[in-house]
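Continuing the series of single-chain predictions for the mutant panel. This is the parent chain; the variants come on the following pages.
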Amino acid sequence: MSQKFRPEMRIRRGPDFKATLRRGEKRRTRYFVLYSLPDTGGVTRIGVITSRKVGNAVERNRARRIVREIFRRNRDSMPAGLDCVVIASRSIVGAEHGDIEKALLGALRL
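Parent structure:
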């Protein structure tokens, strides 16, 4: 399977974010809060929310890139047809990539 992070794998629309946050299952980790909602589309999608509480623009963008990269590399082992919204917390800024990956994969295990 291709390792590209195609646009259809990303949650982009506000109503999709809101539906996942409203009806999705919530899992809290040290680095983020994950909401997951089964979707009938068949493609697992991810959206990342980073508020200004996380840090400056550089830190917020780095957090988003790390989460998306972990998703991209591990999406074959994730359940199909799932919408995921990750809300980053301040502790993600100084965290190691491997620790974030372990937390995300652990939270996605249904």
